[in-house]
Amino acid sequence: MPGTLKDSYGRTIRDLRVSLTDRCNFRCFYCLPHGEPPIAPKEQMLSYEEIESACEVFVSLGIQKIRLTGGETMMRRDIETIIRKLTVLKSSGLKDLALTTNGYFLPDRAQGLKDAGLDRITISLDSLKRDVFKRMTGVDVLDRVLSGIDAAQKAGLEPIKINAVIVRGHNDDELVDFAAFARTHDVKMRFIEFMPLDSGHEWNRLQVVSGREIRDCISEKFPLVPVDGPRGSETSSRYHFADGAPGEIGIIAPVTEMFCGACSRIRLTADGQIRTCLFSTVEHSLRDVIRSGASRDEIIEYIEAVVLKKEPRHFINDPGFVAPSRTMSFIGG
Ligand code: SAM
Fold this sequence. Notes:
By secondary structure, the chain is of the alpha/beta class. Helices cover about 30% and strands about 20% of the residues. The protein starts with a strand and ends with a helix. The mean pLDDT is about 95. The structure holds S-adenosylmethionine.
């Protein structure tokens, strides 16, 4: 029977995000605006064996959902291997294995991910216009990403979620187009508020398009109805189309509609640091504990103690807010 990981505010931790790499082949301006961040030396990165063994311990402590993220997950070599290894944890309590990707490698590799045992995929897509996509991501590959979405659907990696970070003056005029895309492609289109996690620390509140504005704008063209049932620890508020069209809208509004009270997440960075919040300014080196030869009981004790330090909430809206020094591409989105 899996145990239960609880923080000091009574929140149960069920969701682990594992960053497989800090490398990325895109240069999204809201994440890596000034090129490559310092890349962690290879010896500091967790090996697949270390990731597998850490995940096994986390699942024994009650983690039910693992999302592989990065950096660009598919830049880590032989990612199908780690997926295959983690799939085995389904017999001990893992319920959901998901992956976030920019979609670049999917045209050739979506079926391989499915065959390895991946349940679900989230693909980033910040614009449906070639020039805007290029400006936002630094690469001119919109068509390739669209083919990747198609390949993921054909491989049966459904339901597919599409993430768009909405930034004022860049892609906020495409909200209705994205909603139409969700309807015609039958995908879950998720709109994310721009967060202060860019490597240049140039985030500006005026660039944030609020969840409410996104909802109102889409509803004017396509009326929305909230999905029934409690939101639980989900990051997004979810909506169906009132006319019964396929697809779904999700709005992730951590800046203007904080949802920390129901947070069930912790993160493991590519270099083996546990982060108890996306906005944590301290990290806890599980890697050092594992590499010191600690016993399984000692590793469990360490994880439980770290989880007790989980922050009550993020402080983005407080006057003294300090952004984490590491960018989203390193932390793992
Ligand atoms: N490379 C993969 C991808 O592109 O989806 C996974 C990593 S990426 C860091 C994960 C998610 O974080 C993406 O949907 C990305 O758009 C989002 N993201 C990155 N920086 C962000 C920021 N400053 N604010 C909001 N979302 C951000």
